[in-house]
Amino acid sequence: MAKATTVKEALTKWEEKSGEKVSDTKAIKLYGQIPPIEKMDASLSTLTNCEKLSLSTNCIEKITNLNGLKNLRILSLGRNNIKALSGLEAVGDTLEELWISYNLIEKLKGIQCMKNLRVLYMSNNLVKEWGEFVRLADLPCLVDLVFVGNPLEEKHSAEGNWMDEASKRLPNLKKLDGTPLIKQEEDEGDGES
């Protein structure tokens, strides 16, 4: 089996191909490396101006070494082997979008540090409990969530109550699984007793 590509090697290759310096660049694409990247190593700290980092379609298991990415707004980690959301603290103040679909995430511990996260695409993971889902309510800016393909969503979609139950738990959402949520006016139910 071929040795994994390191982030450092991928960045060197990217610089050669693009003719740009990684430290100056706002968007870096390291997706689908052959052989795949397995670790987010310390060379990521050189991406000081990076606003959008794509590491999707690799074999990354852990989110690590984001400390130097002081300007990171969009992190794309879809189609990896990530099992947990720990490691995001370093970008908790700047990250606005996290694309992490098609991973192995069951628990949402660690998401609460994402104070500016507006968009979370995490379809096709392994979340099966409302207890985990409600951790998303700790994200004050979250307005767009894609959660389709998680056992929790599949169960409640089959029962016909997914949209209602999910939007009840996350009242600030404007879009769920690509569908705009139309909020009923709060005072409509006042006359019923």
List descriptors.
8-stranded mixed sheet; alpha/beta; disordered C terminus
What's the gist of this structure?
With 193 residues, the chain is of the alpha/beta class. It has four helices and eight strands.
What would your notes on this structure say?
With about 190 residues, the chain is of the alpha/beta class. It has four helices and eight strands. It has helices at about 5-20, 130-135, 150-160, 160-170; strands spanning about 25-30, 50-55, 75, 95-100, 120, 145, 175, 180. It has an eight-stranded mixed β-sheet, with helices on one face. Strand 7 and strand 8 form a beta hairpin.
Oligomer: single chain
Order of helices and strands: HEEEEEHEHHEE
Query: What is the SS-derived class?
Result: alpha/beta
**Quick check: average pLDDT?**
93
Per DSSP E runs of 2 or more residues, the count of β-strands stands at 8
Q: How much is the radius of gyration in Å?
A: 18 Å
Beta-strand fraction estimate: 5-15%
Give the N-terminus to C-terminus distance in angstroms. 68 Å
Characterize the main sheet.
8 strands, mixed
> Helical element count?
4
Strand arrangement, largest sheet?
1-2-3-4-5-6-7-8
Helix content: 10-25%
Q: Assign an overall shape.
A: elongated
Unreliable stretches (pLDDT < 50, length at least 5) are 187-193
